[in-house]
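# nightly structure sweep
# worker-07 picked up a monomer target from the shared queue
# config: single-sequence mode, recycle default, output format = structure tokens
# input follows
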Amino acid sequence: MVIPDTLQDPVAVENPLVAGEMGVRFYAAAPIITPDGHRLGTVNVLDTRPCSITEEDTATLADLAAIVLDEMELRLSALRALRDEQARREAERQHAEAERARAEAERAAREKAEQDRAAIAAFASTLQRTLFPPALPVVPGLELACRYRTASAYDVGGDFYDVFPLDGDRWAFFLGDVCGKGPEAATVTALARHTLRATAQIDRLDWKTGASGPGMHAGSIAPQA
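# output follows
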């Protein structure tokens, strides 16, 4: 658009730039249009006196508008690239935090599992010791020894043994095997061991000949002086 003399243009003459303090008398503009047809603005040339321009001047003004559009598109592309980079870094940061949280959770779970395994092993060991005599007694004329080992440190075994005095120079011994392992077997073991002790003391069975049953052997010994 070119207006050589704004006072001669019925639209421009009422514009504040013309009628106001600036007193613009010449106006030329080249539109800034995007490739998809959006008008973003114009590049303007103003003067306070009437002027005329050549086609070359008009082409130069259009080139300036194209340069402005290129600069705006470059800036827009840079802003988009910056936003994309910020989004990528934020995604990487969140992923790294998630990985750290996952690794921390796995570490805590492993530590808890190790603590639980240690607690179970300690519990099993403590419970196992309560099922046997705290120590083998000293029997005159005999040497006693035993070794007990479960299949797993985390299970309580079902086998049991016991040696205790009856009367005079007689000693009773038990060797039994409870089917299974774990708390159920330990319960049967404890019950069987203490029941046999009580039976031996109360009923005074003929332990000299010995007795046996499924998974158990019992008898008495009388060491010779």
